[in-house]
Specification:
The protein is mostly helical. The chain has 22 helices and 16 strands. The protein has a three-stranded antiparallel sheet with strand order 5-6-7. Strand 9 and strand 10 form a beta hairpin. The N terminus is likely disordered.
Amino acid sequence: MAEKHKNTPSRTLKSALVKAAGPFMRTHPSPDRVFGELFVDVQRQRIYEDGKTFVDVVPKSRIKHIQLEYKIERENPDFNLQEFVNRHFYQLDTKTSDYVTDPSRTMREHIRALWPVLERQTHKHQGSLIALPHPYIVPGGRFSEQFYWDSYFIMLGLAADGHWDMIDGMMKNYAYMIRKFGFIPTANRTYFLSRSQPPFLSHMVELLEKHKGKRVLVEYLPYLLAEHAFWMKGKSKLTRGGASAYRRVVRMPNGAILNRYYDDDVTPRPESHHEDVTTADHTPEPEKLYTHLRAGAESGWDFSSRWFDDPTDLRTIQTTDIVPVDLNCLLYHLELTIARAYRLLKNAPAKQRFELYAERRARAVQEYCWDEHERFFVDFNTTKQRPTDTVSLAAAFALFTGIATTGQAQLVAGRLENDFLRRGGLVTTLHANGQQWDSPNGWASLPWVAIQGLRNYGHDQLADEIKHRWLTVNETVFRAKGKMIEKYDVVNESGVGGGGEYPLQDGFGWTNGVAAALIDE
């Protein structure tokens, strides 16, 4: 009984978070389940060019009423689906679409002025949008929700500009979602409730700790534990001789437990229904392909040759067969952060337990994700029982979280400089295949991870060069377009990124956050 008491944060702190989270509100199922045939018809006929548009619209009347009217009206030979949708749904206003850049501002001033433009507050559920108790910052463009891993990089910029109240509120939103759903979904949308994103919660807590002190570790310990439990769910099922993988846990050949990306659903992604159905056309096991596609979306790298058997062919995606190096590095950091919180609570058994989890994970990452031939950290394919053939910036997470040895960090730094460093910074992979998480694109999240990781091991000169080149491509595009954009072409002169399933977005939350943090260092 004594140990159970030690594992529990004070009632005062718990009740404070409960009050901050506010009352729960019932959420509807995902739009594909709510609207059934209407949903399929709208997405199949491409009523909207972007499939995310329809899953984000808000019904003007009761759902059952719309469903009934659809069944009746579609029998009319003159039925117009576009007109029906326009009559029964409306789109939420997006402030970013009307924003006009002030050409007299510097890029840094522009970023500072964008925070109010990217701010949202949702007091009640609106269609698929899940209400949250506190205001939050969105990425921008088509992304009008509080996205999970984006938020960490957004918070870096908010911290640089002193918006700690906003960071605190966004953290409380995550506390709310963990209490309501048991985990942090990709974003606060009903169609994201089957998957999460790269687990950056412990890094967010660490960032807030710098401002509010170590008590934040204790305050958020219940949520860090819930995050860990979500990723480790099903671990007990992975006994020797039994299943080798279940949901997000994988038993490695030596018995160690590592993690993979996964999704709890086996249908096309609602926001990319047309694209997924097209990809699965003529495949013998469409549900298996949908699971791989959904897991690729949970990874945040949607999509990349990291997940493909053939780096040029999306149809060969095999995400759930892969143990990703970056995911396991992030979970290593989560376990160490939990151990730090227990140390503050003077709970030695719990502290030692999570330190042991982290130590075992680090050893397994070293054994399975360090490729001696490539001299680089890579992902591991559990079906083929060998490292994958794609090298990527995911390797930098081993330096970012401190799993790499000094010698490995030296080798990774050399490879980053020789193979990945281009005119605009670091290219995401060495494959150019039209996917947005491949060459020639660079994304703000990854140079930040690489820069901080390199600095952890004393490679400051390379880190500064990456920083300089990344900010230069940001500035080049800003001066040419008056925008901060989602992704950048770090190879070619224009600097404007492309590829993927949807048009290039501007706004853009994590680009702003990383640029602000790097400029203000």
